[in-house]
């Protein structure tokens, strides 16, 4: 009887899931399309009640129909509703409007197709092809070469390199483009990627990486303001900010956060810009290193970096992270002050190095 029961159990399990490279892969995708991996969630999201969602959907539909008015005359209301979380049914359209992708798409109606017809830079295309299978391989859209997701991802990334040949292709753009494709058609995803790469993350993907280096130092300065013990610990173990925040910023946390949390962060990111990246990073750092006990448990550089790259699950939970972001004691003046200080410092260092070389 026992062996018969076990066989039945294995049979039932094998119908629902399989083992791939040591990971359990479900045959039934979760509510976001994941079949397994760290992003997979079999639990239903504990979101607002249906009547609240319906009410928010109606408000968003009205706001989108009067978009220019709200952005010009009542941006505070747009920001407030983004911080509460955009309803899932509205999110693709709202993101397209928030980032300015809709304006670009209407201004250049044939540009995407023209980019696809272009031969493109062979080196960029080869690099893109090598990266396709690495983007969310446990998501139903990208789980194999035959899936439309990988083909659309190639098209979107190729189109960007044609549209902006000076910038070309950066690996960190691939997860962002894939993330966008999970929520909208390829042409819309392309224009959102253009806006994010060229406006929100301007020069992040340049080979010199000067802007990301500056923003890493800004993050360090902001941490010193809000949690000096964590700042001192990172200094003590020699954890320079580029060691832990580069992927966070370049990929806009698409490789870091649980999916429901990531969606909420992106709602705010596309509304308010890169400030949300700094705030999210600060909450993660403080959550990992904000107590004496946590700092003792991460006594060296390797332990500290491992903790920051794999934060405890409770720190990243949607409501916890969003609440703690809103509780950070930072003002616009704090951001402006750190931005100015680090920009001047980098200019001085650059000029000093230049003088030394001469």
Give a quick set of tags describing it.
two-stranded antiparallel sheet; 2 strands; disordered N terminus; 21 helices; 67% helix
In terms of topology, how is this protein built?
Blueprint: H1 2-16, E1 17-20, E2 23-26, H2 50-65, H3 67-73, H4 75-84, H5 91-98, H6 101-107, H7 111-117, H8 122-131, H9 148-163, H10 173-181, H11 186-200, H12 210-226, H13 228-237, H14 242-250, H15 259-272, H16 275-289, H17 292-297, H18 301-309, H19 313-316, H20 318-327, H21 332-357
Antiparallel strand pairs: 1-2
Helix pairs in contact: 3-4, 4-15, 6-11, 7-9, 8-9, 9-10, 9-11, 10-11, 12-13, 12-14, 12-16, 12-21, 15-16, 15-20, 16-20
Query: Tell me about the biggest sheet?
Result: 2 strands, antiparallel
Tell me, briefly, the overall form: globular
Mean pLDDT over the full residue set: 90
Classify the beta-strand content into a percent band.
under 5%
Describe this structure in words.
This protein is mainly α and 358 residues long. The chain has 21 helices and 2 strands. It has a two-stranded antiparallel ribbon with strand order 1-2. Helix 12 packs across helix 13, helix 12 crosses helix 21 and helix 16 crosses helix 20. It is globular. The N and C termini lie far apart (85 Å). 36% of the residues are buried.
